[in-house]
């Protein structure tokens, strides 16, 4: 679950470390309303917090201690209500695209620690990370009759970059395929929401225009994001972090 040792929950620091040599660490503790959470810390001081409830990232701070995610002051942290802010996981349905409640049920379920995650092709050394897993309950199967294993890795890299990797496996005993929709519904923190609203409206139009003309969604998204960050004066480092965030992946096995 942490950088140096894949299976240990807490990485202990060596004796008298210098600030730059403190290893990445993962702490399992209680958060708001006693809900359990992990705190990931990286050697240069950035951190992230992940609740088991919802597999929900609620905080991501850079090495200056600045919060990069928005968490509503009205977020109540009381199941079955979803946590408002941070990075809600919308699964197996995004928005109202289906018969389930808005954004599906993954954000309203208690996830478990994944004790035996399949290996990753990439090097996880020097990263603080935690592996979570969600499997449907009998009640879930009544509203969405598909068996699955949803594995989520939340990792914090040495530069403070936050990476979420979702791996969703169809475990239907009859091998029947299923479809789903999904989103990391990230709430970024911004300094001026009014200005952001105007700029977003403008850029959404621009994005639509580019998509219509070129039909190239990826390019449009990148142009959109870079303009947005540039106009809002987001520092270069933060823009980079956001771009890394955007490159988080989802794969089905
Ligand atoms: O209010 P919820 O269910 O947490 O959803 C968060 C937001 O999700 C977005 O997808 C909707 O467009 C918003 O209207 C909504 O507020």
From TrEMBL:
Organism: Stylosanthes scabra
Matching Pfam families: Aldose_epim (PF01263)
TM ranges: 215-234
Keyword Transmembrane assigned: yes
Region (Disordered): 1-26
Lineage, uppermost ranks: Eukaryota, Viridiplantae, Streptophyta, Embryophyta, Tracheophyta
Gene3D superfamilies for the chain: 2.70.98.10
Name of this chain's protein: Glucose-6-phosphate 1-epimerase
Keywords: Membrane, Transmembrane, Transmembrane helix
Entry keyword annotation includes Transmembrane: yes
């Amino acid at each position: 679950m942490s950088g140096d040792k894949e299976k240990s929950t807490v990485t202990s620091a060596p004796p008298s470390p210098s600030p730059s040599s403190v290893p990445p660490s993962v702490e399992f503790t209680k958060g708001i309303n006693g809900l359990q959470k992990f705190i990931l810390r990286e050697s240069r001081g950035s951190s992230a917090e992940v609740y088991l409830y919802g597999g929900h990232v609620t905080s991501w701070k850079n090495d200056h201690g600045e919060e990069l995610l928005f968490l509503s002051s009205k977020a109540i942290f009381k199941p079955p209500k979803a946590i408002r802010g941070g990075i809600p996981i919308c699964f197996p349905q995004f928005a109202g695209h289906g018969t389930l409640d808005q954004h599906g049920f993954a954000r309203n379920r208690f996830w478990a620690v994944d004790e035996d995650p399949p290996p990753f092709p990439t090097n996880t050394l020097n990263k603080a990370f935690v592996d979570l897993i969600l499997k449907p309950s009998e009640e879930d199967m009544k509203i969405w009759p598909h068996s699955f294993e949803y594995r989520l890795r939340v990792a914090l890299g040495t530069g403070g970059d936050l990476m979420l990797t979702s791996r969703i496996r169809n475990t239907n005993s009859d091998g029947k395929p299923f479809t789903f929709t999904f989103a990391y519904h990230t709430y970024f923190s911004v300094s001026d929401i009014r200005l952001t609203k105007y700029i977003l409206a403008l850029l959404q139009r621009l994005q639509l225009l580019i998509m219509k003309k070129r039909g190239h969604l990826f390019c449009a998204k990148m142009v959109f994001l870079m303009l947005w960050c540039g106009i809002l004066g987001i520092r270069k480092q933060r823009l980079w972090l956001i771009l890394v965030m955007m490159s988080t992946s989802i794969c089905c096995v």
